[in-house]
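Service request form, structural biology core

Requester: graduate student, group of Dr. S.
Request type: structure prediction, single chain
Budget code: on file
Notes: please return the result as structure tokens.

Sequence provided:
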Amino acid sequence: MSEPSRPAPPPAPGTPSKPENPSKPTDPSKYVDFVLYASAAVTYIGLSIYNKWLLDWVVGPLWLVAWVWGLPALVKLVRRQPVRPRRNPIGDRQ
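Core staff response, request fulfilled:
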């Protein structure tokens, strides 16, 4: 019979288990998403103070979708970048 494999020994005391710094942002898209959703909430609440008809179960979700999808598309249009991704970014292959 073969001997079962042994687990790896734990790291020495005082050494970090992960070499990466957890305070460094790893994925900037997480922060962009947070900013988009937070700004959608702030603008919706701010505008609904003055226009009470915005406080609706239909207008609220439409506002959120329009803000989160529409704002990045508008920024891409202003920067003259394609709004839709290209089908074949490598080139025309036949």
